[in-house]
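Fold description:
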Amino acid sequence: MDISSLKEIGLSDGEVKVYFALLRLGPSKTGVIATSASVSSSKIYSILSRLEKKGLVSHSILSGVPAIHLIFSCSNSMSTHQLFHQSPCFL
């Protein structure tokens, strides 16, 4: 999978950066993802939310002391496969 393929199915530059960062990192906190993807921390939640709505990213809650953290990870490859086949570019 390359950048142009992801852009063809409608992902923004920020979404592509974040998706590839998650592929490299595995399950991670938002700060680590933002830094790795070179995306501002003020935009990371909206980008992750859009990727979640597209079925490419999921999150889990990690409870701990002193805080609760959201951990984001890439969804299974079936979601990516479905997104490619639902895109108007591939119909």
